[in-house]
Write a structure and sequence with these properties.
globular, 6-stranded antiparallel beta sheet, 289 residues, 0% helix, single chain, mainly beta
Length: 289
């Protein structure tokens, strides 16, 4: 398990992620999007945790990443309580996702992580911002790219301190403006916890468009699951990255982001919650070339 470091101020850090030298892969065109995956099985006992990290081939670089959490047994009727605590870039070629089971009695889960890669174009740098969230009202952290670059993708880390003394529930990770990636969360615990937002900043980017889709839910009762699918991006390129935002009825709502991934020309977001109110809604965003 991970211990979080708490800070009373918001700190921004720009990290250059240079492309590692290596042999150029033999297959695929230079402008073609490459998808690499990594899988981890996580047990269903309380506080069981796990992570997976997908890595782009040598000679390519990361442009975005995503994930999906499903029951290990596709026919199970058990609920999935798994909390995705972080989904973020770890190098110029790798994307990592980490989470844990907050309770027991659910289902053993399969975590699949996606790294979306290209061999051509500029390699993004990463701007990281951290903020301490006090218990109670929702808050957010904005990672802002330097002038001359755009936020083409991003990620989040919602701090969790085992055994649950301090934790956050991520409810937003998306491009807020041309240069800003926003991460939002609620803090239903009794202690401060750290929220981090990561912006992948790319220079010399042509104008991109955003396609969004909103679905009502998740609603209260039955461990409801809501899926929002944003697109269609143009056939040439498809969805290069994506994000999500969940509109909550109140800060005490329990939600878990369990899917945020590319589906060809679409970006799909899946959210589970058992305390949603009538105005709870889920928005998925696809960022298109």
């Amino acid at each position: 398990m991970r211990l979080i470091l708490l800070s009373g101020s918001c700190v921004a850090l720009a990290i250059a992620l240079p492309l590692h030298a290596g042999a150029k892969p033999k297959k695929g065109k230079s402008g073609q999007l490459i998808t690499k995956t990594a899988t981890e099985l996580i047990n269903d006992d309380q506080y069981d945790d796990g992570s997976a990290e997908a890595t782009c081939p040598k000679g390519s670089h990361l442009i975005s990443g995503g994930f999906q959490v499903t029951p290990q047994n596709p026919t199970t009727t058990d609920q999935i309580d798994f909390l995705t605590a972080e989904s973020l870039p770890t190098s110029a070629r790798s994307w990592k996702v980490y989470g844990l089971q907050p309770g027991s009695g659910g289902s053993r889960v399969k975590l699949v992580v996606y790294a979306y890669c290209k061999r051509s174009g500029p390699t993004p740098t990463v701007v990281e911002v951290s903020k301490s969230l006090n218990p109670g009202a929702p808050d957010h952290a904005d990672a802002k790219c330097p002038k001359g670059s755009k936020a083409t993708a991003g990620g989040f880390r919602a701090g969790i301190d085992a055994p649950g003394d301090a934790f956050l529930l991520a409810n937003e990770s998306r491009r807020f403006s041309a240069r800003v990636w926003r991460t939002g969360a609620t803090n239903p615990s009794g202690n401060p916890a750290e929220l981090k937002s990561y912006a992948l900043c790319t220079k010399k980017v042509k104008k991109t468009s955003t396609r969004s889709a909103t679905q009502s839910g998740p609603s209260s009762g039955g461990n409801a699951y809501t899926v929002a699918k944003a697109g269609k991006c143009p056939k040439k390129g498809g969805a290069l990255a994506g994000g999500f935002a969940v509109e909550l009825d109140g800060p005490s709502e329990w939600i878990a982001i369990q899917q945020s991934r590319r589906l060809g020309r679409f970006w799909q977001t899946g959210v589970r919650g058992d305390e949603g109110g009538p105005s709870t809604s889920t928005t998925s965003e696809a960022y298109c070339p």
